[in-house]
Amino acid sequence: MNDCEIARRTGIPRRTVRDWRRHGGQHHGFGKNDDRTKQPDPHCPICGNGNLDPGWYAYLLGMYLGDGCLSERPRGVFQLRITLDLRYPGIIDDCTSAMTAMNHTMKVGRVKRTGCTDVNAYWKQWPCLFPQHGPGPKHLRTIVLAPWHQEIADAYPGRLLRGLIHSDGCRGMNRVKGKDYPRYFFTNYSPDIRAIFCEACGKYGVAWRPTNWKTISVARRPDVAKLDLIVGPKC
Q1: What's residue 18's pLDDT?
Q2: Where along the chain do its domains lie?
Q3: DSSP string covering 30-41
Q4: Residue 123 burial (CB < 10 Å; 0-12/13-18/19+)?
Q5: Do domains 3-137 and 157-231 have the same CATH topology?
Q6: Is there a contact between 48 and 106 (Cβ–Cβ < 8 Å)?
Q7: Element (H, E) at 56
Q8: Which of 6, 140, 218, 222 has its CA 20 to 30 A from that of 69?
Q9: The model's pTM
Q10: From 3.20.20.70, 3.10.28.10, 3.40.50.1100, 3.90.105.10, which CATH number describes the 157-231 domain?
Q11: CA angle 101–118–100, rounded 5-degree value
């Protein structure tokens, strides 16, 4: 079975499937011989002295958990790639700003593909910021927030929700007795990521309910209005 067929059947981007094939699904952590351990990056907020913008980080964490992929490249450099719909240039701009905020000396690029854009940046320290990185798709492994992640998620639930919905969510209309009512949907195959979404909803003060095994909805009118304040229209 080729990469295109695997991508079609699983819904995983073809480039992500290709990366897994090329690198054998290896998870490169922080070993004794890891260059990052020997030479911490002064711009990294975890292993160096960089300043972490918690609002932008909460947003980028949501984007990564939804549509992000972290892949190792030669010489211990990691590529963070987030694939976004070309129809929403505002979200692409926000994602670019969020990546830039992690390290202002880092170049953030965009690669246009059919119907979408890859926002990407190369940095050895990405695993410091996203220790959830591991082999295989996220829904087939455990996704847990580190304690410092949880502190940011608790302090900025709206920003986290914005990133999650911009990546794997949508705002649609629900017709009831001939009338249209807006509601939000968040769809993700990972039960851990759905749980992170639901917990953020609770912290932000909006009610949620499952519509099926992989989708969470927010449908009450006051809750939709509250999400509108921080998610905004896709544009």
Answers
A1: 54
A2: 3-137, 157-231
A3: --TT-HHHHS--
A4: buried
A5: yes
A6: no
A7: helix 54-67
A8: 218
A9: 0.82
A10: 3.10.28.10
A11: 10
Residue 200's SS3 state is helix
Q: Which residue has the tokens 């082999």?
A: 135
Strand partners, 185: 170, 217
Phi, psi (rounded to 5 degrees) for 66: -85, -70
Q: Count Cβ atoms within 10 A of the Cβ of residue 38 and give its class: 0-12 exposed, 13-18 middle, 19 or more buried.
A: exposed
Using alpha carbons only, give the angle 208, 226, 205 rounded to the nearest 5 degrees: 50
Long-range CB pairs of 174-180, under 8 A, 24+ apart, other chains included: 174/219
How does pLDDT run across 94-125, given as a tens digit for each residue? Answer: 999 999 999 999 999 999 989 899 999 999 99
Q: Are 169 and 211 in contact (CB under 8 A)?
A: no
- Residue 20 contacts residue 70 (beta carbons within 8 Å): no
- Strand, helix or coil for residue 177: coil
Model confidence at 3, pLDDT cuts 50, 70, 90, reads low
Q: How would residue 177 be classed by pLDDT, with cut points 50, 70 and 90?
A: confident
CATH superfamily of 3-137: Homing endonucleases (3.10.28.10)
What is the C-alpha to C-alpha distance for residues 119 and 230, in angstroms, rounded to an integer?
22
* Predicted local confidence at residue 45, as pLDDT: 82
